[in-house]
Amino acid sequence: xxxxxxxxxxxxxxxxxxxxxxxxxxxxxxxxxxxxxxxxxxxxxxxxxxxxxxxxxxxxxxxxxxxxxxxxxxxxxxxxxxxxxxxxxxxxxxxxxxxxxxxxxxxxxxxxxxxxxxxxxxxxxxxxxxxxxxxxxxxxxxxxxxxxxxxxxxxxxxxxxxxxxxxxxxxxxxxxxxxxxxxxxxxxxxxxxxxxxxxxxxxxxxxxxxxxxxxxxxxxxxxxxxxxxxxxxxxxxxxxxxxxxxxxxxxxxxxxxxxxxxxxxxxxxxxxxxxxxxxxxxxxxxxxxxxxxxxxxxxxxxxxxxxxxxxxxxxxxxxxxxxxxxxxxxxxxxxxxxxxxxxxxxxxxxxxxxxxxxxxxxxxxxxxxxxxxxxxxxxxxxxxxxxxxxxxxxxxxxxxxxxxxxxxxxxxxxxxxxxxxxxxxxxxxxxxxxxxxxxxxxxxxxxxxxxxxxxxxxxxxxxxxxxxxxxxxxxxxxxxxxxxxxxxxxxxxxxxxxxxxxxxxxxxxxxxxxxxxxxxxxxxxxxxxxxxxxxxxxxxxxxxxxxxxxxxxxxxxxxxxxxxxxxxxxxxxxxxxxxxxxxxxxxxxxxxxxxxxxxxxxxxxxxxxxxxxxxxxxxxxxxxxxxxxxxxxxxxxxxxxxxxxxxxxxxxxxxxxxxxxxxxxxxxxxxxxxxxxxxxxxxxxxxxxxxxxxxxxxxxxxxxxxxxxxxxxxxxxxxxxxxxxxxxxxxxxxxxxxxxxxxxxxxxxxxxxxxxxxxxxxxxxxxxxxxxxxxxxxxxxxxxxxxxxxxxxxxxxxxxxxxxxxxxxxxxxxxxxxxxxxxxxxxxxxxxxxxxxxxxxxxxxxxxxxxxxxxxxxxxxxxxxxxxxxxxxxxxxxxxxxxxxxxxxxxxxxxxxxxxxxxxxxxxxxxxx
Amino acid sequence: xxxxxxxxxxxxxxxxxxxxxxxxxxxxxxxxxxxxxxxxxxxxxxxxxxxxxxxxxxxxxxxxxxxxxxxxxxxxxxxxxxxxxxxxxxxxxxxxxxxxxxxxxxxxxxxxxxxxxxxxxxxxxxxxxxxxxxxxxxxxxxxxxxxxxxxxxxxxxxxxxxxxxxxxxxxxxxxxxxxxxxxxxxxxxxxxxxxxxxxxxxxxxxxxxxxxxxxxxxxxxxxxxxxxxxxxxxxxxxxxxxxxxxxxxxxxxxxxxxxxxxxxxxxxxxxxxxxxxxxxxxxxxxxxx
Lengths: 913, 289
Hints:
By secondary structure, chain A is of the alpha+beta class. Helix content of chain A is about 30%, strand content about 25%.
């Protein structure tokens, strides 16, 4: 067969013919030569299954199949299955009914794998579903709703109607595109053939470098259009997320500070980029001594990451109230512990990707992001351009969890588009994504905790060091958040907490679901159990005795008169807790083999929104002359569901069904700033803006109709109508004045949560609201092998008001799954676990049934009482598991992840506190 | 450059003689290993070769074509002695990998953690190799000469795995230990085959994977097991000092060497118990030969 010979096969029922180079991956051929962008690429190594397709009806990873293998065969992708297969269509309904798609990036793979199963077995058991989907990773859902959706597929109904107002468990408004693979993610925007970018990265954690003759190197290689380095950055070569800590270059200048740092980028045709061996790039490396651990980084004479940060200390955080030392010495019992955690990778299934082009004299960047307006501000600095000349259009985001708050591909896209004058695209490989984007901070925490004999906490001393990597990113936020939250949702009148962020030659640590709070919760909740054991008090009762309440001050001296929901969360666990503790103890009494059962619990709290900083959102809406309602919704939906929840809140306030709302945005040219998708703030902050916007629009309409607020509003094609008791008013929209764009009414809602600054002791009002959580885990430990099986999770979360209970459960299950990963298997080690087979995240077989208990203690500030949820969900998970292990076998694990090796060693050696 | 899919062994061997070719089958190891800028040299894809397909039984035992996929092995009707091989087949990656990956590829890739190798070692598998000079047969234990190293000349291809007939009631088992449930590289794994008669072990074969550069049979342990009563098995652990001489477990991101040793001991015990119950069921089967 000659090179690039024609390959003929049947794609989704249609004969196709394509020329492709020898060994080209089927996934690439499908996406780039045949337009099948419903096939998603997450790893190119068969580790994630996102690209799963059917070949002759059999499930395959398209990334592991040279396209030549499908010569003469039938290939089906999710889009084709949905056209022709009734099972697939029912499955699509079922996925939507169960909210089995969150970000939607793994969904095509999940759908295809499920169809393959259902064709063989129309009524599969849970075990059969698990087996069938074991090769597709999902990072958002925690898999349980996917299992439910597949099990329910034969009976799935189409969507039901209804208003969809706050409290309704409606389908996602953007779900249909996700299940069909029609959602456009970062790498789905660029037309095939667009110039591509390959980033050249440092192979060492710390190295000086010098370039050879870049232009000569480029000129020798046909198809390479440009080489970019720091010299090509038009503005200031620095970005960051916190104004006082903008320190990360788009391209390193003469010294690279972490393995994987960008030093240059090559722009070229797809063929030229595909053929480019990065080791041929003319750069000479001079490896330097690197400090990767926090102790080394603080040692005398350690190389400094940044000359103006002596001792590699980036910043500190501090909160103190009362007299912790005195309370500890007065305590009847004290415990202390030293806890460690490693880097955790976000491992969203979508690697960072985007597309940019210059349109007239403006740069337009389409990329996956959690923070379009922050991107715009950062790009204005990097490009030295007026922000009016920059447009950020977020694509669909295939998971974020914090790391897509920082810039990734955007600088390279913009600089390349500006330099070449041509459209460009860039998709990170999985390895690049893992090497270069932010991580959860490794932690080294020492905690002392005291209690009185009657079970009241007496004194808490927390000292936490956080490995913040080479650049600041969100390290200062972690340093600030941790001391505020390290008390947990407990009354601790005598408290001292100090955190430090230490630079090392590692990828920057940044935002990851919880901003350091999950690490701190491991320490606190572990020692709470140790105290309860010493005092011989039931761990649930002990927590209840010390839990915060309305009117009880937090460690920041903040007193909430209402809305404190930790006690109801703990109480909600009580029935399952008591039954499972008894069952476990009975099980262990009669245990003969190697298996012991344990039940553990932990609490969590999390302040929603920025810590004592302005944090506004604006939402805008129009009623158009044709009766359409346009909602400019700039809160980026990264899978968590803000498109749906914000629309539900807005529709509730306006008084029309959700189905009538047309979403616009996010797009910095079109939508007002709804802030970043982080800090569990979108439901709370942007939700409030949406509520205010809906109320304002309603008030305008009702004023024109001259009816009071209680009137029932109907907006239909061509007219608005209100019914107020016997009174009925109707006005034709074309009788009202519309602007040039056809808008009859325009309203905006703006909300900024009320907070107050923290003083030098961290006293103040950091958040307008907290959300609260308590989770319990039931585990079985094989005490010989150190392996663990989780039987069950019960998760009680105070969400204030569940705007959409289905999506709230999805957040809980997804957070628990990530917490399980952090507790049991995930540790990113630069140079060693830079792919998804050495870095393990939970598969569908690792997540037990998770029962969500939605506790609703309304918050006066939240829209319809709602509180944030996104981050709360993984805070209690790891410590609940550690406490369950302790209960099962007596071993107190203080280092996550707990692998079989570490658990077995702890059981044998007694790695106790 | 070309992607070559020969239809006969002779054609494949002919192509191999004429060109420098990368031999592939399921591609589940080759493609993930491909780095940026690496273009595959011309490829010889053996996965369609009719002679390399399928599982058959003959007087010399079982013959598994080198291009047989793990799914095919998992679904085949095979004797209880091969239960461990089938358990391994169901634990290779996940379904996508089992549908593409082949037994021949798994062996030729020669990963220290290859799931197929320990059970095949316990089945005394032999590798059939074809060249223009004809066929030769090599015991698997000699075919894999080191990590990622095999006894295969550039002009040869692996055509089949041959499993000699097991006399009498035999049962096999395979246990894989990893940090998650699917798509996981083993920390340690153990395969066992037991031939039993009247409550006693007639022959034991035990192999450990991921605890040495190449999976190893524990021959000293095996001889110590022979003649023992099945009722002793629950208490029989291999003694690392004596029985683990062929092993050289390392410490890596997945586990420490010490853990691997302890886990291998326990997995040996559990795999033997499982193999014994399979063998006894076979022995007690009314229509047993």
